[in-house]
Amino acid sequence: MIKRFIVKKIKKLFLRDLDDIKIQKAKIFEQELQKNLSNYKNINEVYFKVFSQDFEDGIIQYLLRSLKITDVKFVEIGTQDYSESNTRYLFETMRCKALLIDPLPKLLKEIKKFMKIWINDLKIFNDYIDGENINKILKNYNFNKNIDLFSLDIDGIDYWVLKEIPNKISKIFIIEYNPFFGSEIEVTAPNIKYFDRFKYHKTGFCWGASLKAIIKLMKNKGYVFIGSNRLNCNAFFLNEDYLDQIKLKLPNINDLTKYTKANFKIFKKGNNVTMSFSDIKNDLYDLEVFDLQLNKLVNINQFNLFKYD
User: Fold this and answer.
1) Pairing relationship of beta strands 288-291 and 296-299 according to DSSP bridges
2) In a 10 Å sphere around its CB, with 0-12 CB exposed, 13-18 middle and 19+ buried, how is residue 61 labelled?
C-alpha cells in the first residue's frame, strides 16, 4: 500500500514537470507568433501542440492574439478528464472564466490530479448534454453570452446541440466534424439521447456531422469557416463581426476536399478498435445516417464514400 502511494506521488510530480516544460516551450512559440502575427495567411502556419488533441493550441493562440483577447471566457464541451483538451493551455496560462461539460464520472476529482484549479474561475457541469438542455445549462452557469471561445466535441450528436446554441454566442468556435463523411454531403448522426457511436453501429463509423453540414449551419449562425486542425477533424470558425481582425486567406467552401482527407484509425472490427476506414467499409451495409437535405435517415451506401481508399 505504501509503495503504491509513493509511486503514485512520484508519477504525479513527474507528469507535472513534463507539463511545465511543455508550457515553457509554448511561451517561446507565443513570442514568435506575436512577432509575425500579421504575416500568417493560413492557420496551418500556426500549428502548435501543448495539451490539445492535435495542433489546436497554436491556432487558438493566433486567434486570441489577433482579436486582442487577454481575459478569456470559454466553454468546452467534451473534455474527458481535461488532460488533453483545446482549452487546458488557456486555463493554465491566462486569466479565464471557464465552463467544462462532460459526463466523465468525478470529473472535478480527475482534473485536480494534475491541475491547480484555484488559479482561475472554473465551473463544471458533470453530466450529458443534448439539444434540449444545452441552453438551460449555459444560462444557469452564466455562459449564454459574451463568450470568447466555444469548443464542442462529443463524438455524437454535435450537430443537434450546435443547432440549438444561440447565434454569435462566441467570437471563436471549434467544432469536431466527421471527415469520413466526405466533402459533398450534408449528413449527421441521428438525434439520439446518450448517443454512443459503438452502440449505434458496430464499426463506430457514425459520429458527428459532415463538414459541409456544419459550415452551412454555422453560416446561418453568423460564422465564417477559417480552416481545420492537421488531422482534419476540428473545424475553426470566426464570428463574422471579427473577420476584419485576421489576415488569413479564407478556405474555398465550394471545395472542401483538402479538409476531409483523414487517415486516423478509430473504427472497430471485432475486438480491434484501431481500424481504418478501408478496414470497415464493407461492414457499413446496414448503417443509417441522417440526411439533412432529405430530413430523414438514409443508408450510408447511397453516398460515394469509398474515395478514401
Assistant:
1) antiparallel
2) buried
Domains of the chain, by residue range, sit at 2-261
Is residue 228 within a helix (H) or strand (E), and if so which, with residue range?
strand 223-228
Do 265 and 276 meet the contact criterion of CB atoms below 8 Å apart? yes
pLDDT value at position 10? 44
What's the pLDDT score for residue 154? 96
pLDDT at 7: 38
The answer for 183, left when phi > 0, alpha when psi is -120 to 50, beta otherwise, is alpha
Supply 224's cell numbers: 465564417
Tell me 209's DSSP state: B
**Residue 244, Cβ density class (10 Å: 0-12 exposed, 13-18 middle, ≥19 buried):** exposed
pLDDT number for residue 307: 52
pLDDT at 306: 56
Task: Name the CA dihedral angle for 77, 78, 84, 85, rounded to a multiple of 10 degrees.
Answer: -20
- Residues of the chain short of pLDDT 50, as ranges, are 1-11, 308-309
CATH, domain range 2-261 = 3.40.50.150
Give the sign of the dihedral formed by CA 262, CA 268, CA 273, CA 275: negative
Q: How many CA atoms lie within 13 A of 162 on its CB side?
A: 33
The amino acid sitting at 131 is: G
Tell me, what's the pLDDT at 304? 78
